[in-house]
């Protein structure tokens, strides 16, 4: 196992009715800014629950944060915060709202152009405290220190991480997710699944505990994910999906093991250039990454085949092929298509994707840092 530091200070309030308890988590004299997206929280009653939990408090609002949150929008919230002297943020929505709020929290105290936090890896030394009410199980943002923001003007979708932007608390009430359309449920399943795969499907590192935790999350997603699609009001299935998605990217399974974020990095460029949902990009790229990188990942692919999919028959080649095919079929079965052509994207877009990866310094990806632009080209060619 590799050396690691593990730190995660996020308090989780899990279960039905937990929104009612948020007031106790926020200082009584705080000037609070509720941040949210395009309005789903108003349609499903989550906004009303938050407002009644914060009755009598000093509350401001900032709505309109887009999926794949835009820098340009988030900077307007920063202006409002400075003008009103707001000192606590409450993100209410999906990963985009939580990510956007992390950026806002950091940008408020940043001297200079806050985009440098992402474009130049400028360190974040302070941030406003914030909490989250999560309404879409997918990203893990509710319990991690990462954030992905898009500069719309230039179509740059970039990532930053800082221990300053862990939420103080996150509410995970599975009932708030009942209103999700099937597309977003499927997206959440695929995103969480891929987060596990990028921390697990590399090479053996003598970390059997992390391996088994990763495999148990994958198996839980395979079992519970389809139940949530078949019966959107199945509380227990939804609760298990929500907790699986959080556990998939809160740092625990990735501690002490090699990681491969190739699929995500290619995926971010696909979203920025072609507007695919985050999880759609992952469903397209992951099967191809596993196929092109099969030699490097051979041992773990065999382990994955056996322990996650129960594939024990056939020679090694056959088992590896079957495991990759099962992965693709699972994504398709939860409604997320796995080919570029399903989204109207042709292979002629490959040079632009590679150019953007180069611009963003993503030229040595993967657990061996040997996924260079030529390898990315092979991966994308297989995504057609
Ligand atoms: O904007 P509203 O009206 O709220 O609607 C949203 C949005 O249209 C809707 N929605 C959310 N909760 C709902 C709901 N609709 C009905 N009922 C509910 N309960 O769903 C749509 C998508 O929301 P979004 O927040 O964009 O989705 P998601 O949670 O999948 O977040 C995706 C973003 O997270 C980033 C992605 O790149 C992308 O920008 N990621 C963040 C990560 C992190 N911070 O660690 C890691 C991930 O790999 C990912 O990159
Ligand atoms: Zn993701």
From TrEMBL:
<dbReference type="Pfam" id="PF00465">
    <property type="entry name" value="Fe-ADH"/>
</dbReference>
<protein>
    <submittedName>
        <fullName>Fe-dependent oxidoreductase, alcohol dehydrogenase</fullName>
    </submittedName>
</protein>
<dbReference type="Pfam" id="PF25137">
    <property type="entry name" value="ADH_Fe_C"/>
</dbReference>
<dbReference type="InterPro" id="IPR001670">
    <property type="entry name" value="ADH_Fe/GldA"/>
</dbReference>
<dbReference type="InterPro" id="IPR056798">
    <property type="entry name" value="ADH_Fe_C"/>
</dbReference>
<feature type="domain" description="Alcohol dehydrogenase iron-type/glycerol dehydrogenase GldA">
    <location>
        <begin position="9"/>
        <end position="174"/>
    </location>
</feature>
<feature type="domain" description="Fe-containing alcohol dehydrogenase-like C-terminal">
    <location>
        <begin position="189"/>
        <end position="380"/>
    </location>
</feature>
<keyword id="KW-0560">Oxidoreductase</keyword>
<dbReference type="InterPro" id="IPR018211">
    <property type="entry name" value="ADH_Fe_CS"/>
</dbReference>
<dbReference type="GO" id="GO:0046872">
    <property type="term" value="F:metal ion binding"/>
</dbReference>
<dbReference type="InterPro" id="IPR044731">
    <property type="entry name" value="BDH-like"/>
</dbReference>
<dbReference type="GO" id="GO:1990002">
    <property type="term" value="F:methylglyoxal reductase (NADPH) (acetol producing) activity"/>
</dbReference>
<dbReference type="GO" id="GO:0005829">
    <property type="term" value="C:cytosol"/>
</dbReference>
<dbReference type="GO" id="GO:0008106">
    <property type="term" value="F:alcohol dehydrogenase (NADP+) activity"/>
</dbReference>
<dbReference type="GO" id="GO:1990362">
    <property type="term" value="F:butanol dehydrogenase (NAD+) activity"/>
</dbReference>
């Amino acid at each position: 196992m590799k050396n690691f530091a593990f730190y995660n200070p996020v308090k989780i309030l899990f279960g039905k009715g937990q929104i009612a308890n948020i007031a106790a988590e926020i200082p009584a004299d705080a000037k609070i800014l509720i941040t949210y997206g395009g309005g789903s929280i108003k349609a499903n009653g989550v906004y009303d629950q938050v407002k009644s939990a914060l009755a009598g408090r000093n509350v401001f609002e900032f709505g309109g944060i887009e999926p794949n949150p835009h820098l340009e929008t988030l900077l307007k919230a920063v202006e409002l915060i400075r003008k009103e002297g707001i000192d606590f943020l409450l993100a209410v929505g999906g990963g985009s709202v939580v990510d956007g709020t992390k950026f806002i929290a950091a940008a408020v105290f940043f001297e200079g152009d806050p985009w440098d936090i992402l474009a130049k890896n400028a360190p974040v030394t302070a941030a406003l405290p914030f909490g989250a009410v999560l309404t879409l199980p997918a990203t893990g943002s509710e319990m991690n220190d990462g954030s992905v923001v898009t500069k719309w003007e230039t179509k740059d979708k970039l990532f930053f991480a800082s221990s300053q932007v862990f939420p103080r608390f996150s509410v995970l009430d599975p009932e708030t997710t009942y209103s999700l359309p099937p597309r977003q449920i499927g997206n959440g399943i695929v995103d969480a699944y891929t987060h596990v795969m990028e921390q697990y499907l590399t090479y053996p590192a003598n970390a059997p505990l992390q391996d088994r935790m990763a495999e148990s999350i994958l198996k839980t997603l395979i079992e519970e994910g389809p139940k949530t699609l078949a019966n959107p009001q199945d509380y227990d299935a939804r609760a298990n999906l929500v907790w699986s998605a959080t556990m998939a990217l809160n740092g625990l399974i990735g501690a002490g093991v090699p990681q491969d974020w190739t699929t995500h990095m290619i995926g971010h460029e696909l979203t920025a250039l072609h507007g695919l949902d985050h999880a759609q990009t992952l469903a397209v790229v992951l099967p191809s990454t596993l196929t092109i990188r099969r030699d490097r990942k051979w041992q773990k692919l065999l382990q994955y085949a056996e322990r996650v999919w129960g594939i024990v028959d056939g020679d090694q080649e056959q088992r590896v092929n079957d495991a990759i095919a099962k992965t693709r079929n699972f994504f398709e079965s939860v409604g997320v298509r796995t080919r570029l052509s399903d989204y109207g994207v042709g292979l002629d877009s490959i040079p632009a994707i590679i150019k953007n990866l180069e611009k963003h310094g993503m030229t040595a990806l993967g657990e061996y840092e040997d996924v260079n632009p030529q390898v990315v080209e092979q991966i994308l060619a297989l995504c057609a």
